Amino acid sequence: MFRGGEGTTLDSDVDPNTIRLETERLILRPLREEDAESIYQHVKEYDIAKWTINIPHPYPRDGAIIFIRQSMELLEKGLSYELAIELKPELKIVGVVSFVKVDKRHKNAELGYWIGKPHWNNGIATEASLKILEFGFSELSLERVFAKCFHDNLPSKRVMEKIGMEYEGKFRHEVLREDRYIDMIYFSILKEDWKR
Predict the structure, then answer these.
(1) DSSP alpha helices (H): ranges in the chain?
(2) N or C: the chain end with fewer CB closer than 10 Å?
């Protein structure tokens, strides 16, 4: 799940244990081990896995706890910021939004997200993505954030457009998923574009 390559950490005073981003409807916070069951219940659904590169189907029962522990380690090192998306007021987890492949030298990161199927088409991915972009540009001092999705994942493409990202291009046959090659489309946003 949203597993980025080894990068370098950013020069930032952000204490990963105190990250809490809030919008009108959402709270974004670091993953905790007790989130494993909620995450498992969402990602075990084929409709989640089929639109992602790294979520397998069927999803293993212990997959969520392994993912969370890896995310916690990478967060401590500043290599990745994978945040639970909690819906107010019940504060139940409805998805994950993240920066992976965080690169200090070039000050960029990859944005990723998934939303549990019962919460699709409610603007949650857009709202969470806008908030983590604000965090990335203001707190992490990122210069560029990019995102990618399967060429036929129109809802994800729309999220990228709504948050102000620009289309950069298509990488043909970049991913092999379920015995077929899939084209990926890339989008990005620069700090100067975010400020407008």
Answers:
(1) 36-43, 46-49, 63-77, 124-138, 154-162, 191-195
(2) C
Is position 20 within any domain?
yes
Q: 90-121 in b/e burial notation, b at 16+ Cβ within 10 A?
A: eeebbbbbbbbbbbbeebbbbbbbbbbeebee
Contact predicate 69/13, CB 8 Å: no
- Burial of residue 176, with CB atoms counted within 10 A of its CB: 0-12 exposed, 13-18 middle, 19 or more buried: exposed
CATH of the domain at 88: 3.40.630.30
Number of domains in the chain: 1
Instruction: List Cβ neighbours of 36 (8 Å cut-off, separation of 6 or more).
Output: 64, 65, 68
Domain that holds residue 95: 16-142
pTM: 0.91
Q: Alpha helices of 50-153 — where are they, by DSSP H?
A: 63-77, 124-138
190 in a structural domain:
no
Q: What is the pLDDT along the chain (196 residues), one digit of tens a residue?
A: 434 344 444 556 688 888 999 999 999 999 999 999 999 999 999 999 999 999 999 999 999 999 999 999 999 999 999 999 999 999 999 999 999 999 989 999 999 999 999 999 999 999 999 999 999 999 999 999 999 999 999 999 999 999 999 999 999 999 999 899 999 999 999 999 997 7
* Tokens describing residue 11: 């020069």
Contact yes or no for 160/147 (Cβ under 8 A): yes
